[in-house]
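Subject: Interface between my chains keeps coming out wrong

I've been trying for a while to get a sensible model of this assembly. When I model each chain on its own everything looks fine, but I need the whole thing in one frame so I can look at the contacts. Pasting all components below, labels as-is. Any help appreciated, I'm running out of ideas.
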Amino acid sequence: GAGVSQSPSNKVTEKGKDVELRCDPISGHTALYWYRQSLGQGLEFLIYFQGNSAPDKSGLPSDRFSAERTGGSVSTLTIQRTQQEDSAVYLCASSWGRASGATDTQYFGPGTRLTVL
Amino acid sequence: AQSVTQLGSHVSVSEGALVLLRCNYSSSVPPYLFWYVQYPNQGLQLLLKYTTGATLVKGINGFEAEFKKSETSFHLTKPSAHMSDAAEYFCAVSDHNQGGKLIFGQGTELSVKP
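Reply #2:
Try treating it as a single job with all components included. I did that and got this:
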């Protein structure tokens, strides 16, 4: 079956522009996570969705970052007024989201490489 | 707060040699521990995980890890390295109270010499 997919695979933008990154989770997975991978900061959690709700947004670095999930499926991460420090690989993961979600395996997509010039 | 420390940002071994990648964790609750591998320009793939039960966990591609509570460690091993094992390896602990978000170590890049 299909894994987690993300689009675009690469995005180059100019400082100050807005960008949208998309994640399609594995069908039936209710939990969805966004992470960011950068040279200086390693792998950082951004936000977690259970269904369409986001109980944990604690990793979003600023109010320029937002995310939504619709229909319990596709999620979009939006970065407004991009800055050079936003350059990173943005990874999406999904899991079954069972009650003991902490033990579930998270399946990762290939990521979106964002470059802000 | 939970945290993970991976000793050694880069490890190099010869083909056929033992692979040992070190991971130590900090957690105030019984930890759930994971090892993921990332091949160049790809996402992360689960190698193995420890949740409860047997402390020696076997994963894919011949890797295994042992949970040692007394040492707060979860080191990853493989008896004989293959060239195809060259990749970056991440140890992680999941947060019990926040939907299982993963807290990662800094990663260890494994090189395998012929």
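Reply #3:
Confirming on my end. Chain B touches chain A through 26 residues (CB under 8 Å).
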